[in-house]
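Page 47, continued from p. 46.
Same chain as before, 70 aa.
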Amino acid sequence: RWYELAANQNNAQAARKLGEMYARGDGGRTDSKRALELWRKAEAADDLGTVAEEIRGRLELSRQSLKETN
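Result:
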């Protein structure tokens, strides 16, 4: 909840972290669309680590998807 509130106030670190949580499904189901939205929001707020985190998150989602299909 706190990450959501901070992300809504353009806190780049909170948006990045919340995106990671949605990508992994922490606390519920995964939501890759919401994760990408949050990573883009963090990027817009000039979080330097965001691009690397987004790439890492996309790779992890791809790996999970491959595991599920095999």
